[in-house]
Structures are given as structure tokens and as C-alpha cells.
Write a structure and sequence with these properties.
Rossmann fold, about 325 residues, six-stranded parallel β-sheet, seven-stranded parallel β-sheet
Length: about 325
């Protein structure tokens, strides 16, 4: 058995890493290279170096680069994780070469092609050509069944939680508020979000507001005027988990952080109109805030009872072991 595993961003690496480690020398790791500067600690066998930007559409360039530079490899299947342009590009390249596709974290849906954009569409497209769908939750598996996707469907939990199991019971002072905002659909309102973050910080001076700012120019420009919120460079995985553990509440537009916060039984205010992870809303781990001018109200309300006494809906921290068993049965 030989499985190619493709990733390009730091969140993707965090989620494929447990599977890569479980596969050992049965994995051929392909890096598509969007976040190389943030990929400390990752490893790869093949690097699809991005072509020089021609000043066109960035998504077009990523997609074309993955398809045109996909390596000539002899593998049983290609695993892609999530919803980025490189996920779709590599999946299409494998499809054109007759290589089976394994979709890790399959079945997440918001049913709104603009939120998250363009990820919602990419996920749906990959589902139509995947041979194996590794769904994190029962709900995501049910959605795939309703769509009558042609591939196998397995409920495995989310691999992002595998590395968190040893820290499940860490005890920290909850004196911080972690903030992560960077999504494409929020960048046009980033100044408005930052204004409301300042108001949140003003309302609770006893809490330390920490914002590891994404390197996106639009994010960097917006955070430059923050004074009550501490803006720091992007942090590594361990530092991010330390910040989650030390936070009274988390403000984010990230997908993966919603899962991590729920694993530690805390709350996340999600600065998006919708989420493809609605399980956290049902358990009380997630609160949607679709507009900046509602953020302070939600923030103060949720701080009154920030601890959630409900099981994490996204898995138990043993996903990689389940996935390895599935792959060995199919390709072993």
C-alpha cells in the first residue's frame, strides 16, 4: 500500500500529520506550498513549488499549478484534506490520472456557496470524484448519503483532535481572549471587526486580548490601529493551543479552531454568517456572529457562562487509527 497525501496550508498539515505518522513509510507526502513560511515542523517528499504570480487570480494560479505540476507517482490513492484550491487542484489531477481520491474531512456543508467562499464549492466538487469519504461526524456522513456520492463513507472523527488528547485536562487560568480572523469573506469588513474587538477589550480590561495576525496584507493593515488588543505574529501549533487553554472565550472565523475549542469544552464566537460545522451550535460550543456590530453583545452574553458541559461533537482523538484500518482494508 502506498498513499499520496497532499497538503499546502498549515491547517491542512495539522490535520494530515496524524495520518502521515500512522502510515509511516506507506505515505508519499506532497506539499503544494501556499504556506511554506508557516510550515515549521512539517515534512514532504515532493514540493509543487508555486509558479511566479502573473498578477491574475490567485485561486486560478493555485489550481493550475497543482494540476500542471502534479508528480508522476505510482500510488494506490491520493488523500486530500479539506477545502482549499490546492485540494481541488490535486484531486482533479489525480482523477485525470486514474488515481483514487480519499477525501479527509468530507461532508462538511454550509449550503451557501459564498460562505465560506470558495471552500464550500470545492468540498462539494471533490465529493463527486472521491472514492473514499472520511467524514468527521454522523451529520457530515448523512449529508454525503443524501447527496448520493459514489464513494465509500466512513465516520472517523476529526484528526485535528488526535494531537490534543494529552492536553485534554490541562488546567489554566482563563484570563485571555484569543482572536483569529482572516477569512476571505471577512477581509472587506476587517476594519469593522477590529473596531468591535477594541470595544470588547474596553468592556473587559481584566482580560488580555491576543490576536496572532495572519500575514494577509488586508489583515495586517486592519490590525495596525488596534491598541487594546495585543497583535502578535502568527504562532505555532503548541502556542495556539496554549492560548486556547488560557482563554475565557475565543473569537474566530476559523473552521479548525471551532473543533479545538469544543474539544476543551470552551466557547467560540464565530464571526461568520454560517458554518459548515453546525454540530457545535447544537452542543453550545459555537455561537455565530454574522455582523461586526453584534460582536460586543454576543461577547458579553457568552462570557457569563463560558464553560460547556457537553461532549465534543467532532471526535475522540483517535481518528488516525480508525483511518489506517480503513485504508489497510481497502488497499492493504
Amino acid at each position: 500500500m502506498k498513499i499520496a497525501v497532499a497538503f499546502g496550508t498549515r491547517p491542512e498539515w495539522i490535520k494530515v500529520k496524524p495520518v502521515v505518522e500512522a502510515l509511516g513509510d506507506k505515505a508519499l507526502v506532497i506539499c503544494t506550498g501556499q504556506h511554506v513560511s508557516l510550515l515549521n515542523g512539517s515534512r514532504w517528499d515532493v514540493h509543487l513549488k508555486p509558479s511566479e504570480s502573473q498578477g491574475g487570480n490567485r485561486l486560478d494560479e493555485i489550481l493550475a499549478n497543482c494540476m500542471l505540476r502534479f508528480p508522476n507517482v505510482h500510488v494506490d490513492a491520493l488523500m486530500v484534506q479539506g477545502d482549499t484550491a490546492s485540494v481541488l487542484g490535486c484531486a482533479l489531477a489525480a482523477f485525470h490520472r486514474g488515481i483514487e481520491i480519499i477525501h479527509l474531512e468530507a461532508g462538511l456543508r454550509s449550503f451557501d456557496l459564498l460562505n465560506p467562499y470558495p471552500e464550500e464549492a470545492y468540498r462539494q466538487m471533490v465529493s463527486r470524484i472521491a472514492a473514499v469519504n472520511l467524514a468527521p461526524t454522523e451529520l457530515s456522513g448523512q449529508r454525503l448519503k443524501k447527496e448520493m456520492v459514489p464513494g465509500e463513507i466512513h465516520i472517523v472523527g476529526n484528526t485535528v483532535l488526535d494531537s490534543l488528547l494529552p492536553r485534554k485536562w490541562d488546567d489554566r487560568a482563563n484570563d485571555k481572549v484569543l482572536i483569529t480572523l482572516h477569512r476571505r469573506e471577512n477581509q472587506g469588513q476587517m476594519v469593522d471587526w477590529c473596531r468591535e474587538l477594541e470595544r470588547c477589550a474596553e468592556s473587559r480590561p481584566d482580560l488580555q486580548f491576543v490576536f496572532p495576525a495572519h500575514p494577509s496584507p488586508k489583515v495586517q493593515e486592519a490590525v495596525s490601529d488596534l491598541s487594546r488588543v495585543e497583535v502578535i505574529p502568527p504562532v505555532d501549533r503548541d502556542q495556539l493551543i496554549d492560548l486556547i487553554l488560557s482563554s475565557a472565550i475565543v473569537i474566530t472565523d476559523s473552521g479548525g479552531i471551532q473543533e479545538e475549542v469544543a474539544f476543551f469544552n470552551k466557547k467560540a464566537i464565530v464571526c461568520r454568517k454560517t458554518t459548515e460545522r453546525p454540530e457545535g451550535i447544537d452542543t453550545g460550543h459555537t455561537v455565530l456572529c454574522g455582523e461586526p456590530d453584534k460582536l460586543v453583545t454576543y461577547f458579553l452574553a457568552e462570557l457569563k457562562n463560558p464553560i460547556v458541559n457537553a461532549p465534543c461533537p467532532y471526535g475522540d482523538g483517535a481518528s488516525a487509527r480508525k483511518i489506517l484500518s480503513i485504508l489497510e482494508t481497502r488497499y492493504g
